[in-house]
Amino acid sequence: MGESLSRDYFIKRYKEVRNFTEKLTEPLEIEDFVVQVMENASPTKWHLAHTTWFFETFVLEDSFENYQPVNSQYAYLFNSYYLQTGDPHCRDKRGNITRPTVKQVFKYRQDIDQKILDLLDSCSEREFDQIGPVIEIGINHEQQHQELMLADLKYLFAQNPLYPAYIPKEDSMDESIESGLTWSSFDEGIQWIGHNGKGFTYDNEHPMHRQFLQEYQLANRLVTNREYIEFIEDGGYERHSLWLDEGWATVVEKGWEAPLYWEHKDGEWYYYTLGGFQKVNPDEPVVHVSYFEADAFARWVGARLPTEAEWENAAGNQPIEGNFVEDQYFHPKPDTQAGEGLHQIYGDVWEWTQSSYAAYPGYKPLPGALGEYNGKFMCNQYVLRGGSCATSLTHIRPTYRNFFHAHERWQFMGIRLAK
Amino acid sequence: MGESLSRDYFIKRYKEVRNFTEKLTEPLEIEDFVVQVMENASPTKWHLAHTTWFFETFVLEDSFENYQPVNSQYAYLFNSYYLQTGDPHCRDKRGNITRPTVKQVFKYRQDIDQKILDLLDSCSEREFDQIGPVIEIGINHEQQHQELMLADLKYLFAQNPLYPAYIPKEDSMDESIESGLTWSSFDEGIQWIGHNGKGFTYDNEHPMHRQFLQEYQLANRLVTNREYIEFIEDGGYERHSLWLDEGWATVVEKGWEAPLYWEHKDGEWYYYTLGGFQKVNPDEPVVHVSYFEADAFARWVGARLPTEAEWENAAGNQPIEGNFVEDQYFHPKPDTQAGEGLHQIYGDVWEWTQSSYAAYPGYKPLPGALGEYNGKFMCNQYVLRGGSCATSLTHIRPTYRNFFHAHERWQFMGIRLAK
Amino acid sequence: MGESLSRDYFIKRYKEVRNFTEKLTEPLEIEDFVVQVMENASPTKWHLAHTTWFFETFVLEDSFENYQPVNSQYAYLFNSYYLQTGDPHCRDKRGNITRPTVKQVFKYRQDIDQKILDLLDSCSEREFDQIGPVIEIGINHEQQHQELMLADLKYLFAQNPLYPAYIPKEDSMDESIESGLTWSSFDEGIQWIGHNGKGFTYDNEHPMHRQFLQEYQLANRLVTNREYIEFIEDGGYERHSLWLDEGWATVVEKGWEAPLYWEHKDGEWYYYTLGGFQKVNPDEPVVHVSYFEADAFARWVGARLPTEAEWENAAGNQPIEGNFVEDQYFHPKPDTQAGEGLHQIYGDVWEWTQSSYAAYPGYKPLPGALGEYNGKFMCNQYVLRGGSCATSLTHIRPTYRNFFHAHERWQFMGIRLAK
Amino acid sequence: MGESLSRDYFIKRYKEVRNFTEKLTEPLEIEDFVVQVMENASPTKWHLAHTTWFFETFVLEDSFENYQPVNSQYAYLFNSYYLQTGDPHCRDKRGNITRPTVKQVFKYRQDIDQKILDLLDSCSEREFDQIGPVIEIGINHEQQHQELMLADLKYLFAQNPLYPAYIPKEDSMDESIESGLTWSSFDEGIQWIGHNGKGFTYDNEHPMHRQFLQEYQLANRLVTNREYIEFIEDGGYERHSLWLDEGWATVVEKGWEAPLYWEHKDGEWYYYTLGGFQKVNPDEPVVHVSYFEADAFARWVGARLPTEAEWENAAGNQPIEGNFVEDQYFHPKPDTQAGEGLHQIYGDVWEWTQSSYAAYPGYKPLPGALGEYNGKFMCNQYVLRGGSCATSLTHIRPTYRNFFHAHERWQFMGIRLAK
Residue A286: which of A336, A210, A229 has the closest Cα? Predict the structure, then answer.
């Protein structure tokens, strides 16, 4: 799914991404690798092993006729949902498995890395043409899991009344160079949406196709905590008329009164961040809000969320730069960019769109088990765009489609308005 | 929401629709009016009262300054979800209420009918301009509830091991004049979608707007039971690769093996119909399948479901005729139409589209409590088009958007394929 | 299980009890017979049919070799839990069944009554010796269901915000002739507990056996609403130290703040009674409290609940008289008895004992399916003694053991203290 | 609660028990200390900290006026259910807490040990009289948690498809010297039950009181796996008539077909033991059965379970010896004792009695928060007697009352029959 790249490039990129995964675990104690506190948030140990299993299953097993797995039960323990490769272990039981130990999982990574690098080194060109694209998927897959790992760890630490920090940080005092929200306008017309096929992409970005867009406007920057607090203080969480029916039901059932990780104490808002428990910085973009909250906020303002086509059409011309995981800041930053045009399009927070996650016209999933990667989730989820402070710069692009359920908040998700 | 119509027309149509609701209850025993067996399926008594409450609340209360409700607690008992008019009684508890009795509810209907007809008779032109549109919504609202009533009654009777018939009927032996499935082709291009504003419509059909459609094909008729049985016999319910992820989870959790109301007995398929428990007629359109099943069936065939824009673009030129509730057949019929082109577009079964229910660009809900009618459900539901054997002929149109959750099956829902 | 009685006696008693069941349904509308609002509270229609099925199954089917059931599916629909007679219809789905209609169920009763009375008239002495005891169980079984029917109807009506009365009544102003709570003392020693076998009894009252009782004291009367309100006002429902662990968990989970059916309005306590929604009469015995509440109240007072042996030992000498269902008052009454000794021992409310429901030493269940009547419930339930205002005078005796789970409140249950 | 013992004795016993807890954790990896897989089974780390918190709260905080806790949040994290000492952290969330780390918890233990030993060394006689009894409760409390820890670890490891062993062992081939089951008889009469007050006891063993026991017989040994397999093969889990009503419901709901940890593979029975996954040894006592299974097995045999009074009356004369946790075998052993009389009364498995856990006549809980230790659990649980292979020899006595819910199986529970 993309043009062919050199063997050296692959070896370098494979090593970089695999190493970065392990670098992200350096602040952790053994205990932190093991626990699962909700079905959607897997233990770090599982992420480490699952990304490795991916290379073992889709590259090594396919390359060697009588491949002997490093441990035959890992296929069961570390499969996620690829039913065609055999029944996976229940997703909500990943945290029950204390063995293999963390040490054994790191050993598993080393073993597979050695085999993959040996294979890349020794395989014929014809073999390389086959495994290259799969390794590229594996590398991108691992980057996705790096991001999940951070979100899952944040969720884990936030359950602990001691609020341990992933990497302790001072309260952020950064301020934005703010001059109010402005709007960028876009003309109506037929636009090409989706990827043209140069470079790595997922199947769900294809095929490139035409859509007719009405005239629209996008906000120049993300919604801030300051604005979101105004929404809260204006009774945002108490006025059903601002909410979708399922959104209101969720607010009532879960008792939501603020974004995930926020706490009201002595008249001030605090939140848990990967840097520890801190006072909310009003200039930062709001993060950890659900689709329901993004939608309600937009209705309160008198605006709406963009469609994914609107977003993509606007973002296509923007440079891919911003606050990514490579910065190791692990939290969105205030908008400090001056001038007109769109700010914070990439990085900081994933931006909810109003678009239900669906197949593009003429969409075809990858053949075989990898076809389960994207297509089968095209139901009851909403698309997010632009990457976040937990995403790799090398992983994002204008056509990239992320997707979550409307009630989910534990990823780094925020809001950009449209009209 | 539509051009103004004469007072006589309203009086006639009001009477017709209100009478037809009561006609539909004639086959029932008192006991059948009361019971609720799932949250989504309300008791007949509740439908009778709720549609009446609608006129009382949105017409009478708004028309008379000191309006005294017929019974002040009915507003609580028979509100559905209009939070702006006050807290409704819990939806899943509608079946707990044995009083008012059925007789009292019919009395309530008569009282309100009298008041509405008096009002229509006596109001000034200016008042008529105000209440006319609301009465028209009320009439259409009641037609929607007629359809729900039939689906809910079917669901109720099907829980009873005695399988009582709503209106006993012989097994259908009708055959289709079938010559295989054929496809109608449609060119790519910009199309106008949504309603132009003449005649009654709901807010969700507006505004009319342009969409770019790729070239596509629609099947000439609905999917039949014969075809669906082939899918079952080919392991359709056992092969996860045919299903969306949430669809497969639903199949496993609910143990689905066939459409709702089907039973396998002595090597034959049977189903419960409103005519009683019968042998499945293979020539009929399959009905009572979820979005998940429609989607899996389409994947099995190598086709897909249409988008709602594709459907609307194709259906716009078709005459609105078919097997509607006025026929009092209460079940879809085999395709007996000869010749090319699209058959069974209207009536028989609601046709699942692949489109998530969403606002059209520039959509504005009605003002006030009636604004809760449609917009707040625009999340995690899928659009169905064309009406069914339980829909009124006078209620349907090319732009009409019905919507249900992907797992729901108790409405009269079926499948038309696209490519 | 008891000495033999004359055929005439049986015919008379059969007719009386069967008629009284139907008399109890006279205040009902058809709608009231059908609905089930919790698993434990069955529809009146079901009670009417089930008690009839009991006679059909255990008397008629056993008496006639080729007995043709009145309706072969009733055995499935109206069995309760007798697994040996075939799978019963799910208990929580009794309310889904609108057919047979109420009229048809009354017809079923008449048909079976005719057959039973014919059989009693025509059978040989040897046959009579066999069926007599089973009919006696059936009569007592029906009396149990009369009581359940009243409790279930009360629960049903109480769900309705309109609070319909079963039989409308004025607020009770009756006062007790109260002179404070006094205590009756009983010596330590070996006592005979259980039934000696004269007259009808259930298997769980056997065998009569010895128990050693320590010295103890019983309160002369039941705990009143006045006393219970003091408990509430003293923070009874807020102080975990007063409660059993499971009791406190129940209070928190269910949000209990008072007995079932109580509401606090404008600083006063009200309750729903079968006579309608009324102001709580402080002189009446408190009713509709769980074992947990009875136990917590007793701990608050510094007393405890009696054991069932203590209760039986004390009650054995008391006359069986009081406020029973024959009075058709359907609610407990204030203690108006003067003088020393035990008041209100029988009737008014079932009295919770601290005894877990268990087999007496040497207990043997009845043979066959009727052996499922009692023994299999001897786990996690607590014994209540003395009958209530919903019990028949002809149904109660000193050795009678009723039993419910510790959290249940919908029967007419109250409190007598011990030390 | 017991006569006073010397200071040296306390110091020695404190050290022994605290050290033994840590010895039991030696086979574990860090990962094994952290995870919780069901509400009732706490992480090892929690047990280590909670037993320490007990000494800190009930001894140190009470002894020093301005005691500064080692970590002020530990009181919240490591309280179990003592509501009087402040809200405990939710029991089902103990596994969410990765910090403090295992190392920090061991440090916490050392800190508290030092303080306790210093206190024991330096306190006045008057102070010693106060803290001695509390320390003794703390020591016994820790022994209870040693046993829970082993049962919880077994449950944890059994969730892992890799079946890691706690301490790997060969399959047991031990055989019993069996000559069939025999019965010991006991005469009827008044017996003293409960503890006379010499030596340490829990409040629930008091007061000693009289009970009248009918003549009864006890089986000379525990029920074996061989006998239990016969029950299974005779359809024990398929015949509802053998089960209590709630037992049968549990069998159906949970799909039970054998004791906990058993698996049927290639026609043979296997089980997970703390020594690993092994073939069932038919001569061993059956273990990990619920009250429901013990009761059904007894009914199948034509016997019953003993009452706790019967058990205590019989066991009072037996020497306290057997297979205890000190043996570090962690699994019950076959009966190898020759001769008449009762075997295996102590150790091996806790023996279910038919007695609901209830207060003895005149029972008084301890004052203060320690009064929550036992009394508030006296509802819906059943008494077990005699200790198990996970119990300390120094912890058990004839009057010791253990208790669990009827459906629980994860402790080392087995069956002795009575008639």
Answer: A229
In which domain, by residue range, is B288 found? 183-414
Query: Which chain C residues touch D190 with a CB distance below 8 Å?
Result: 190, 212
Separation CA C83–CA D102 (nearest Å): 52
Q: Which residue of D has its CA nearest to A166?
A: D99
Taking contacts as CB-CB distances below 8 angstroms, the residues of chain C near D352 are none
Q: Does C163 lie at the interface with B, CB-CB under 8 angstroms?
A: no
CA pair distance A353, A356, nearest whole angstrom: 8
Same domain flag for D147 and D276: no
Distance from CA of A71 to the nearest CA of D (A): 11
Query: With b meaning 16 or more CB within 10 Å and e meaning fewer, what string describes C377-389?
Result: bbbbbbbbbbbbb
pTM for the whole structure: 0.94
Distance CA C220, CA A55 (A): 80
Mean pLDDT (whole number) for B116-124: 95
Q: Give the span between the Cα atoms of C225 and D97, in whole angstroms.
A: 46
Domain count, chain C: 2
Q: Do A97 and D159 touch (CB under 8 A)?
A: yes
The answer as to whether D407 is a domain residue is yes
pLDDT tens for residues A73-123? Answer: 888 888 876 666 666 778 889 999 999 999 999 999 999 999 999 999 999
pLDDT at B179: 62
Residues from chain C that touch D80, judged by Cβ atoms under 8 A, are: none
Helix and strand counts by DSSP (H, E) for chain B: 10, 11
Interface test with C, best of B25, B37, B72, B96 (most C CBs within 10 A): B96
- Spatial neighbors of B37 by CB under 8 A, at least 6 apart, are B95, B155, B156, B159, C96
Of the residues D95, D124, D158, the one at which a domain ends: D158
A and D: number of Cβ contacts within 8 A: 91
Helix B44-55 vs helix B125-158: crossing angle, to nearest 10: 170
Contact B189, B213 (CB under 8 A): yes
- Cβ separation C244–D379 shorter than 8 A: yes
pLDDT of residue D35: 97
Same domain flag for A146 and A219: no
**Who contacts A324 (Cβ-Cβ below 8 Å, separation ≥6)?**
A346, A347, A387, A389, A391, A392, A393, A396
pLDDT in tens, D66-123: 999 999 888 888 887 666 666 677 888 999 999 999 999 999 999 999 999 999 999 9
Nearest-CB residue to A406 (from B245, B362, B380): B380
* Co-location of C199 and C150 in the same domain: no
Candidate from A190, A214, A244 with C-beta closest to B361: A214
pLDDT reading at B1 higher than 50: no
**Interchain CB contact of D93 with C (< 8 Å):** no
Q: What is the CATH number of the domain that holds B20?
A: 1.20.120.450
Q: Predicted confidence band at C1 (pLDDT cuts at 50, 70, 90)?
A: very low
Contact B218, B205 (CB under 8 A): no
Run means of pLDDT, 10 residues per run, chain D, 419 residues: 70 97 98 96 97 95 90 86 71 92 98 97 93 94 98 97 94 76 96 92 96 97 97 97 96 97 96 97 97 98 97 95 97 89 96 98 86 88 98 97 98 98
- Residue A171 belongs to some domain of the structure: no
* Interface membership of B100 toward C (CB under 8 Å): yes
Average pLDDT, chain A: 94
Q: Tell me, what's the ipTM?
A: 0.94
Binary contact (C245, D377; C-beta < 8 A):
yes
Measure in Å the smallest separation between the Cα of B340 and chain C Cα atoms.
46
Looking at every residue in chain C, the average pLDDT score rounds to 94
Looking up tokens 């109580």 gives: C262
Cross-chain residue pair D211–C212, CB shorter than 8 Å: yes
Same domain, A86 and A203: no
Among C246, C362, C377, whose Cβ lies nearest the Cβ of D380? C246
